[in-house]
Design the sequence.
């Protein structure tokens, strides 16, 4: 089903408000979800709304949070999200991080006690839009086997960075440290599609193509991806004093409880280094040179990170709107808040 931006955002916002989320918070969450869907990141878009609505309705998000901001140094701070929407907390923390970086050149902001915050690229792009360079890390519940191991220990533990250029382009990189994020599995389930056999394994460690048989995800590039998983967990878990590794709360175990997740934003002002204009000019040159490179067989072009996402967004609106899975659309337009499909399930909602 193809929907306009306003239709998609409105359906998601109304559903979460019906579940009990205040309008201003529902506006933020639905905006980030729309940002994801229109760029083709369907794993972090509308497919998440039913889960969020069930958690909201059951008390798993603090609906009237008491956020706190503590500057621990000229360039460092801690933001306590009071187990509210991770989207709202991560956005507010990024806004404050940008202000700090503009003032002092760099900001390192730890965010603790939050719920799921969605696509990290949204927050790093916020910084790039303000002529800042940013990186963000976020922990997640254990669903990936470490290199050489047999039991899940780390989560998909995503990383994102973004940087401005001298024109209207923004470099925005966003990746899970697993071959694919769990949301990709969820999206394939909603579309009744198989997954590649390189994404996940069953209980015996055997690769699977049925998304319903997934027991654990696998790290990208073996030991290298495993190391990146640990890096993310150190920065967004151990360093912030929140549960880490296999102790991170499950997304689905008890939807009436807060998750206490951690996230880290690092924002830098290029003016304090090479100078803003020189930096942006070089970034544009990088994008141009990559795009002018002769592509390898099977590829039409070398794209800079985030370029194809913008192309998908433009194509979507030029061809009738954002394509949403029929099952997800039927739920969004229904009168139901949720169908009790996630509470007290395992890490893969089974």
Sequence:
């Amino acid at each position: 089903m193809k929907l306009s931006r306003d239709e998609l955002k409105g359906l998601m916002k109304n559903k979460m408000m019906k579940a009990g989320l205040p309008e201003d918070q529902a506006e933020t969450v639905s905006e980030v979800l729309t940002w994801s869907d229109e760029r083709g990141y369907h794993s972090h878009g509308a497919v998440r709304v039913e889960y969020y609505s069930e958690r909201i309705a059951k008390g798993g998000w603090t609906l009237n949070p008491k956020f706190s901001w503590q500057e621990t140094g000229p360039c460092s701070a801690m933001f306590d999200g009071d187990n509210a929407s991770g989207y709202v907390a991560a956005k507010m923390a990024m806004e404050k991080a940008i202000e700090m970086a503009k003032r002092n050149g760099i900001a390192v902001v730890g965010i603790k006690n939050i719920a799921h915050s969605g696509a990290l690229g949204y927050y790093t792009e916020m910084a790039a839009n303000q002529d800042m360079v940013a990186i963000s890390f976020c922990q997640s519940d254990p669903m990936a086997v470490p290199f050489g191991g047999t039991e899940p220990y780390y989560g998909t533990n995503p990383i994102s960075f973004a940087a401005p250029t001298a024109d209207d382009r923004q470099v925005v990189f966003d990746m899970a440290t697993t071959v694919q994020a769990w949301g990709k599995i969820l999206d394939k389930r909603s579309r009744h599609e198989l997954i590649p056999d390189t994404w996940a394994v069953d209980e015996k460690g055997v690769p699977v193509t049925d998304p319903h048989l997934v027991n654990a995800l696998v790290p990208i590039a073996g030991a290298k991806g495993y190391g990146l998983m640990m890096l993310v967990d150190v920065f967004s878990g151990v360093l912030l004093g929140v549960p880490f590794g296999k102790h991170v709360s499950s997304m689905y175990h008890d939807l009436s409880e807060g998750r206490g997740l951690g996230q880290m934003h690092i924002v830098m002002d290029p003016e304090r280094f090479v100078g803003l204009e020189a930096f942006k000019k070089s970034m544009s040159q990088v994008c141009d040179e990559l795009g002018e490179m002769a592509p390898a067989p099977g590829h039409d072009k070398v794209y800079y990170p985030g370029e194809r996402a913008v192309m998908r967004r433009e194509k979507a609106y030029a061809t009738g709107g954002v394509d949403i899975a029929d099952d997800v659309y039927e739920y969004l337009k229904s009168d139901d808040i949720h169908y009790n499909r996630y509470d007290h399930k395992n890490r893969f909602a089974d």
In short: The mean pLDDT is 95. Residues 192 and 199 are 16 Å apart (CA to CA). The chain has two domains: 2-61+307-333, 68-272. The chain is about 35% helix and 15% strand.
